[in-house]
Amino acid sequence: MLAQATTLYLSPSGSDSNTGATAATALKTLKGVLTRVKAAAPTDAIDIVVAEGTYVGQSVLWTYFNGQPITFAPPAGATTKPVFDGGGADLSWFVMEDSADAAIATNLHFIGLTVTNYWLGLDLGREKAAGNRGNEVRDMLFERIGGAYSSGPPMGYAALRLRNSSGNSITGNRFHGVKNSASADSDGDGVNEDLTGYIHAIYAAHNAHDNVIADNDFSQVSGDAIRTRNGSDDNLIEGNRFIAAGKYSAYSDWIAETGDECASQGNQFKDNTVGDGYFGPFDDGYVTHSYGPDDRCGTLTAPRITESGTIMQ
Fold first, then answer.
1. 116: Cα within 13 Å, side-chain hemisphere
2. Enclosing H/E stretch for 88
3. What are the φ and ψ backbone dihedral angles of 193, each rounded to 5 degrees?
4. 38: how many CB neighbours lie within 10 A of its CB?
């Protein structure tokens, strides 16, 4: 059983045969942590204390939720961010999977870690939407993410992806180097395509609503830095800084011209600082932009995007 049922320790020098109950008996992998947590099934908050150092090639499909905070963070007093390095392999670092009870809040917290050299960084999305809420991503560094940096499919999608996810706080993070290639074959037809626009630092899709994205830095992002899609309403994007980030816009809402997806609405882009895009200055009026029909699912009750207080740098 877990010592105190709340705290587990993770270390690059640990072992998954350990208990994880102390720093001296730390586990080595996120999969080892998940195995231990599921076996003990604690009902209170869980703290995973991530020791400084580099964790190579780790990936996990997380399936345990008890409605209480589950936090991944370095120990108090740490002077450097622990680094999860995918090594350029075809890996996503952390993927949320469905749980047995979809109504239980996921309540995952990621604080003060570096995620680098992965195809996809953090995927907070699942089909059973009811409980996918209340997550926090704070003081993280996502660097070298996407098809340009991994052996996975050439078309990467995001450093941080939200799907059917609400009430999340994404604050004080840095997204640097989120890219796809300008010339790669994504569908095996032997013809290279420009894939730069398909990846985003934050991709909030399919009813990802009421999220706060604030005080983040975005740089060297080949696609639009933030993209919402398909009924992802009432998100606040405030006080962020965009430098060399965005193919066409710093933030865009998108649906296809045909199909059954609904335009998002009520999203606010407020008091953000915006420099050039990834390929140079944005076209006039394109710091934010929406694509696809507004009225496919009925008359909107709020604008798709309201932009205010933008500081052009």
1. 15
2. none
3. -130, 160
4. 10
